[in-house]
Design brief:
2 copies of one chain form a homodimer. By secondary structure, chain A is α+β, with helices and mostly antiparallel strands. The first copy, chain A, is built from 10 helices and 12 strands. In chain A, strand 11 and strand 12 form a beta hairpin. The relative contact order of chain A is 0.15.
Chain lengths: 335, 335
């Protein structure tokens, strides 16, 4: 890396999303998720599961061996199944999962088993042998976040449709990289508005504390940008066992997010709020006027490479990028 | 049947449970569900899915063909997978599913995909060929009630542990057969207390109305007897899209059932009620004193054989069997 021979750029600038460190290299197999209404294709890598995963500086033999298995076995097996079944409707799975206690970001227990259940028969049919079918289905079914990456790409394909609309104050990208938090706004083109990435208020896995935590990291906050995740927490009360707090906090977070969003989602609804649509489309004017920053559900990575996820919680995102964006908006549009 | 050569008796008298008409013949493969704490084994047939299914008088070629496929292919394939994996923990699946919007009776969307996801890798590994693995996994995954039958047998194995306890006023069996509703009470041995089976307040599938409805039918009310189903409705707000009403009705039903039950469940909890245990153990004294009859979530069968399920709803069970049981209790124990 020090040699400068490897070029880096944010996933979002390649229509990609990656959870946590989000490392995607040119040789990796990716999911292709298409917004068919708007003809937008987005991409994500395959979820590696908990424990030791790839990050900058984290490339132990264990990590590399798993990645090689993912490239040689998992990826091609899923690819054959997806081709045989003609693809999966990610939005339909998400809509159903929100009625099954998922928030769509930190809790994807339901979506991941729905995903596994849809893929499994086609994996059994098309895998090169029954041992490969066994290990592929088991890996997908045992990982409660196996659908996270295609969900993120799906969310990006939704928010990307709203980008570059003249005069729009809607946020179309939020992302963090462990150092910075950045925002893009529909009517403000490709400019990033950034601040230092925050520390997450988290419930830590046994043996870890806040002293182990990396600052907030990953592209997965694209889910909140699209109206799910922290914004849909009211539908996921059981999530508090994983991130801390009580079920009422979950409802309050969703209710707060209605204050800063433009609309209620047509497809993603919350049974306990009488099937009200999730708060969708963060409006920088509302964020600044009401001084309510968006909140996200998120995983927490260890500050040192090679350890992996150490907890999960809720993070209040920094206010200044939204304020800076509103100033830039006033400059550009003369309000 | 008219010849009298075929002998009938209730599933419950053979430690069995069957949904709707609940026809189980000696040649059928059954699930074996064991309460390991108490060494009680219960049994259920395999779920046939929606549409045309076996009932008294309903044995069209389509029904028989499916049953033959279930006996020759589905059953043996599931059996091999269950043996390879050493069984499935039905109670653990239920506990998780109650945090995923299932009530455990009428809505088993989550439990059925968890069940399918656990079985699928072992089906892929042990099925006689990949086509058999494909059709078996697909049948389980497409049927939102695929786990209903083992859940019912599991519930029976729980309530059976409470049966025949001297002096106990707890209900250990409730069942309906389309004509009668019957109750057994722990301290009153093998006596049935019965009344006419009620009509269900239901939301009907397109094309059907209450005029098509059979009176309340099936052993599945063993779920309410064990503290889930209608008793756990507060955890399943999305169920109202299937049975009618609004999410508040679901919460109110659960709250009412606390009035007539002995305890709160240790393993089955309701996130939205701050993880309170489900109301468990119907006490005939409380039912009669408060004049609150148990309520059940249930499917509705067509009154004519051969049509299958036509709707789903909530039924308030008749009061008189609980009153009759309390009189019998007073007679027996001299209170």
């Amino acid at each position: 890396l020090k040699s400068g021979k490897i070029e880096f750029s944010p996933c979002h600038e390649h229509m990609c999303t990656g959870p946590m460190a989000g490392v995607i290299s040119p040789s990796m197999l990716v999911y292709v998720v298409e917004n068919q209404t708007h003809g937008i294709k987005c991409f994500s890598n395959l979820n590696e599961g908990r424990g030791k995963v790839l990050r900058m500086g984290a490339y132990s033999p264990e990590v590399l061996e798993k990645l090689r298995w993912m490239e040689s076995t998992l990826g091609p097996t899923i690819k054959a199944a997806l081709e045989a079944m003609g693809g999966v409707d990610v939005r339909a799975i998400l809509a159903k999962a929100l009625h099954m206690g998922d928030d769509g970001h930190n809790r994807l227990d339901a979506a991941s088993v729905l995903w596994t259940t849809q893929l499994a028969p086609y994996i059994a049919k098309t895998a090169k042998d029954s041992a490969t079918a066994f290990e592929t289905i088991k890996f997908l079914g045992d990982n409660a976040l196996s659908i996270l990456n295609p969900v993120m790409a799906g969310c990006k394909s939704m928010t990307a449709a709203a980008h570059n609309i003249e005069g729009s104050t809607i946020v179309t990208i939020m992302a963090r990289n462990g150092t910075d938090f950045g925002v893009k706004v529909s009517g403000l083109g490709d400019q990033w508005f950034t601040a230092q990435s925050p520390i997450v208020k988290a419930l830590y896995f046994p043996g870890f504390t806040e002293a182990d935590a990396c600052r907030d990291i990953g592209d997965s906050v694209i889910t909140e940008t699209a109206g799910i995740g922290g914004f849909a927490m009211a539908t996921a009360p059981a999530l508090v066992t994983f991130i801390g707090g009580v079920p009422k906090d979950a409802i309050n977070t969703t209710l707060d997010m209605y204050e800063i969003t433009h609309t209620e989602h047509k497809y993603f609804t919350i049974p306990f709020l009488d099937f009200r649509g999730t708060p969708t489309g963060i409006d920088i004017r509302k964020v600044v006027e009401k001084q309510i920053a968006p909140r996200a559900n998120t995983g927490v990575a260890h500050k040192d490479p090679g350890v992996g996820q150490v907890g999960a919680g809720v993070v209040t995102l920094p206010m200044s990028p939204f304020e800076d964006a509103l100033v830039a908006y006033a400059d550009k549009y003369g309000f």
